[in-house]
């Protein structure tokens, strides 16, 4: 610990580190406590947290701290008290702990942010997000951009001194400080490759030279498709990784890739995982009918669907037709899930048809349905 001729004590360790007791608790948990002839009164404990290991800090998940994190899946690690701040040291080329990477402060963590800047005599603040991005959270968060900035700065610093560019050892060094961030950045890269329309074999090649957690080509494909489906479920917070691309076109291209790969004996991707991911999307009432219908048609072209999937396909096709001619008519699976139900629906709509658009809709409906075994009208 460090102290001066002042009431401030600076403790440089935790009470327990790596399951070993480092120090006795020499202050009260609250109020006052007598230590021999000295009474100690607790005023306030200030703690800063800097992370560098792969262990998640459990106190960061406490209710008092969890709302301090701008991105919920990026938490500080190691031990820390209730007054923590989400930050991490990253080594530079010439000295350790050159950079402090932290989130942009929330409205109730601004004081914590400036206190950290003051305590560590930080003279320069580099903001890697546009101010407009603060209104949304997406996959390309500032944590990744900050790590890239520090890595590039380290590369440039070494280039000035040694006239060498060493990307491999730079990434390796940064990975020691923040392994989860580097893995997350590489995972994002794999997803971006697939969203850009590159072959899945490129992902296989990258995974052959670097391990990224427990990720496989199958994982990358599933995550890429999840980015697309999420963009339809939450259009206001759609991932920037799509970069204005038409989501369904990207999805179709990727699913066709998987289908062709599987038909030629490839085992990098499991088609069943793709269907299991997209099936709930096709039944999600939050999503408009048209993209759900499109996805089902893509699956029908590429894979063998179950009977339940085929019922959904008929439902969405029928609903798309009916909604244009009978705006108030709402359909359910019970209206089309068997031959007799479809015939009953047809007769009902025929009885209330009054214009050419509705008669044409009936004709289209018969073309998208399986052939009716019996056809009786009144």
Automatic annotation (TrEMBL):
Protein name: Uncharacterized protein LOC106172547
Domain Tyrosine-protein phosphatase: 1-187
UniProt-listed InterPro entries: NBAS_C, Prot-tyrosine_phosphatase-like, Protein-Tyr_Phosphatase, PTP_cat
Protein's gene: LOC106172547
A GO molecular-function annotation: protein tyrosine phosphatase activity
Pfam families registered for this protein in UniProt: NBAS_11th, Y_phosphatase
Top-rank taxon: Eukaryota
Membrane-spanning segments: none
Species per Swiss-Prot/TrEMBL record: Lingula anatina (Brachiopod)
PANTHER family membership: RECEPTOR-TYPE TYROSINE-PROTEIN PHOSPHATASE, TYROSINE-PROTEIN PHOSPHATASE LAR
């Amino acid at each position: 610990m460090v102290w001066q001729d002042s009431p401030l004590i600076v403790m440089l360790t935790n009470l327990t580190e790596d399951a070993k007791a480092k120090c006795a608790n020499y202050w009260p948990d609250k109020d006052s406590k007598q230590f021999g002839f000295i009474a100690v009164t607790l005023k306030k404990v200030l703690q800063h947290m800097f992370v560098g290991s792969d262990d998640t800090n459990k106190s960061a998940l406490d209710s008092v701290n969890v709302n301090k994190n701008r991105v919920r899946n990026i938490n500080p690690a190691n031990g820390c008290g209730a007054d923590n701040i989400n930050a991490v040291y990253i080594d530079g080329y010439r000295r350790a702990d050159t950079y402090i990477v932290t989130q942009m402060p929330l409205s109730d963590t601004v004081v914590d942010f400036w206190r950290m800047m003051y305590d560590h005599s930080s003279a320069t603040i580099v903001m890697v997000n546009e101010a407009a991005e603060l209104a949304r959270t997406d996959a390309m968060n500032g944590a990744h951009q900050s790590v890239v900035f520090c890595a590039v700065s380290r590369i440039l610093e070494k280039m000035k001194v040694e006239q060498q560019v060493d990307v491999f050892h730079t990434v390796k060094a940064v990975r020691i400080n923040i392994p989860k961030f580097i893995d997350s950045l590489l995972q994002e890269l794999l997803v971006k490759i697939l969203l850009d329309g590159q072959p899945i074999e490129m992902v296989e090649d990258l995974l052959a030279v670097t391990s990224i957690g427990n990720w496989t080509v199958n994982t990358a494909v599933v995550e890429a498709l999840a980015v697309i489906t999420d963009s339809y479920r939450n259009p206001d917070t759609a991932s920037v990784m799509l970069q204005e691309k038409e989501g369904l076109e990207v999805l179709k291209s990727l699913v066709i890739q998987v289908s062709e790969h599987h038909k030629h004996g490839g085992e990098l991707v499991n088609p069943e995982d793709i269907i299991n991911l997209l099936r709930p999307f096709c039944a999600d009432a939050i999503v408009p009918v048209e993209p759900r219908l499109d996805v089902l048609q893509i699956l029908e072209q590429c894979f063998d669907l179950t009977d339940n999937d085929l019922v959904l396909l008929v439902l969405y096709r029928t609903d798309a037709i009916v909604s244009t001619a009978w705006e108030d008519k709402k359909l359910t699976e019970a209206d089309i899930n068997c031959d007799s139900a479809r015939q009953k629906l047809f007769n009902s709509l025929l009885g209330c048809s009054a214009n050419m658009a509705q008669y044409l809709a009936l004709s289209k409906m018969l073309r998208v349905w399986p052939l009716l075994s019996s056809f009786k009208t009144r």
